[in-house]
Amino acid sequence: MKHILIFLGLLCFSAQAQSPELTLNITNIETIKGSIEIGVFNTAHNYLKEGAAYKNYTIEVTKDTETIVIKDLPKGEYAISMYHDENSDDKCNKNFIGIPKEAYGFSNNVVPKFSAPSFEDCKFVFNESQAMAIQLRTF
Length: 139
What we know:
Elements: H1 2-17, E1 22-27, E2 35-41, E3 55-60, E4 66-70, E5 76-85, E6 104-106, H2 119-122, E7 124-126, E8 130-135
Parallel strand pairs: 1-8
Antiparallel strand pairs: 1-4, 2-3, 2-5, 5-6, 5-7
């Protein structure tokens, strides 16, 4: 009986020690091709700087809504940016003044006005499993 109680105690401890899951539900995908490129940032210092994301994820587009479950993100504060790489060239294509030509989205569904949103605008606290809907937008 003592061994069973120890086993149950260890089982409960390991379940609590697991990282929470972040589920991203991405909507408003207009063309069914390419991939969604996701950057997760953990500081304002490097937010939206190319190659500076804390974590990167890719989803191949197969329908007009996609879902990704992120299981390797520790608890903390984050901001997410993403774009639909329709032509699979591994970059967010922009026009001559720097406005994205491919659909994009941010955590908190922030809609940029005259410039890219800040880390503070897009920041969210991730302490427990949660789902977040992000709608892709075009300019």
